[in-house]
UniProtKB/TrEMBL annotation:
SUPFAM superfamilies from the UniProt entry: CoA-transferase family III (CaiB/BaiF)
InterPro entries attached to this UniProt entry: CoA-transferase_III_domain (IPR050483), CoA-Trfase_fam_III (IPR003673), CoA-Trfase_III_dom3_sf (IPR044855), CoA-Trfase_III_dom_1_sf (IPR023606)
Coiled coil stretches, renumbered: none
Superkingdom of this protein's organism: Bacteria
Organism: Teichococcus vastitatis
Protein's recorded name: CoA transferase
Keywords: Transferase
GO molecular function, one term: transferase activity
Length: 430
């Protein structure tokens, strides 16, 4: 049995957050990633969705997970929605908002990513819900935060990558073919904010453990991305020079970039003088290591262009696989530039259990990317595949609020809630 199947087949451990109840009023990526992290670590997550529509990403395809239904879910939806139960409630109605307030009264955590102030008209804002449940940890994820001149604006990852300065240091440098700012190939501003939101929620749980107090957490995409300018921002704050685009080169470390071999590109990442000397020895260019201009990283950074031209000439005749093997033997950090298909078949990735197979309630299999942290005594688990829209509405309302079947049906008839439509695959098996 492969590691991924072995992990998925074993009985899930309760998880360090077992017993915590999370009300997830978010959609798309940043906040749903945060709640998926909580779910992976054992929390019970109720994903509140709009009846008939659900999370926007359910329709962000192709590709779609073909399961025989009339409206299959898009691949995008599956990246941030496992270990959740889908509850379809229209909280634009008074009855729906009242149901959510009742659910929030029994919740530990609520996560939402509506525009600043958008939930107040439904009585679902932080002030109202914390008044009714002072232990509630209420996390708002927005583009620009709850305060400041941009607070009411909508924020999207692409905009944030540009506004934060990230795109100004990403892309080919001026004077090279293809020069110009470019976004990162993943929605990193969303992803970073989701991670910061999860960390902030865990910190708030620790505070509540000591004080009994809940609180309103304010996470913004712009704040998160600015915080992750890290060395580029510090280079400016300390040195006063505005960082510029360097393509795949590093602003501080040399050599640290891509080089062309005879059959492919490889990455070379020498983080120390020792590694640089080992690379020169391997390439038969001890003269470069002996050159006083290149003896230290500071010198190599000043003479970046001259050194990289010489290294490029020495690397060009090699075949990529042979050079990478030789570098590994010599202790010189390097690697290939994998495609997504290659990395998802990489033996290291598979050995670490980073691919997991799950099954939806209709039996449809879906493979997902696993949780990266290894917690040997309280591991992450893969209990619930990303749910179909409204799959758990009836069960949750019965379990959490004690509603009888007749009450649930009346709410459905009134359009306040929606139940999952019968699935063709389940009907056939029945």
């Amino acid at each position: 049995m492969t590691p991924e199947r072995d992990a998925a087949a074993s009985t899930p451990a309760p998880g360090p957050l077992h017993g915590l109840k999370v009300l997830d009023l978010s959609r798309v990526l940043a906040a749903p990633l945060a709640t998926q992290i909580l779910g992976d670590l054992g929390a019970e997550v109720l994903k509140i969705e709009q009846p008939g529509r659900g999370d926007d990403t359910r329709g962000w395809g192709p590709p779609f997970l073909e399961d025989g239904s009339e409206r299959p879910d898009a691949a995008y939806y599956f990246c941030a929605n496992r270990n959740k139960r889908s509850v379809a409630i229209d909280f634009a109605t008074a009855e729906g908002a009242a149901l959510l307030r009742r659910l929030a009264a029994g919740a530990d955590i609520l996560v939402e990513n509506f525009r600043t102030g958008g939930l107040a008209r439904h009585g679902l804002d932080a002030a109202t819900l914390l008044r009714d449940n002072p232990r509630l940890i209420y996390c708002s994820v927005t583009g620009f935060g709850q305060t400041g001149p941009y607070a009411t604006r909508g924020g999207y990852d692409f905009l944030i990558q540009g506004m934060s300065g990230l795109m100004s240091v990403t892309g080919r440098p001026e004077g090279e073919p293809g020069a110009g700012p470019i976004k990162v190939g993943l929605p990193v501003s969303d992803l970073f904010t989701g991670l910061y939101a999860a960390v902030s929620i865990l910190a708030a749980l620790r505070h509540r453990e000591r004080s009994g107090e809940g609180q309103h957490i304010d996470c913004a995409l712009l704040d998160s991305q600015v915080s992750l300018l890290v060395n580029q921002a510090m280079n400016y704050l300390v040195g006063g020079e505005v960082p510029r685009r360097l393509g795949n080169a590093h602003p501080n470390v040399v050599p640290y970039r891509d080089f062309a071999t005879s059959d492919d590109y490889i990455l070379v990442a020498c983080g120390s003088d020792t590694q640089f000397r080992a690379l020169c020895r391997l390439l038969g260019r001890d003269d470069l290591a002996a050159d006083p201009r290149f003896a230290t990283n500071a010198g190599r950074s000043r003479e970046r262009r001259a050194l990289e031209v010489e290294l490029a000439r020495a690397i060009a005749p090699w075949r990529a696989a042979e050079l990478l093997a030789a570098m590994a033997e010599a202790g010189v950090p390097g690697g290939p530039i994998n495609g997504v298909d290659q990395v998802l078949e990489d033996p290291q990735v598979l050995a670490r259990g980073m691919l997991q197979e799950m099954r939806r309630d209709d039996g449809t299999a879906v493979r997902v990317i696993g949780f990266p942290g290894r917690l040997p005594r309280s591991p992450a688990s893969y209990r619930l595949a990303p749910p179909r829209l409204g799959q758990d509405t009836g069960a949750v309302l019965a379990e959490a609020l004690g509603l009888a079947a007749a009450e649930i049906e009346a709410l459905r008839t009134a359009g306040v809630i929606a139940l999952a439509e019968p699935h063709p695959a389940r009907e056939r098996s029945a």
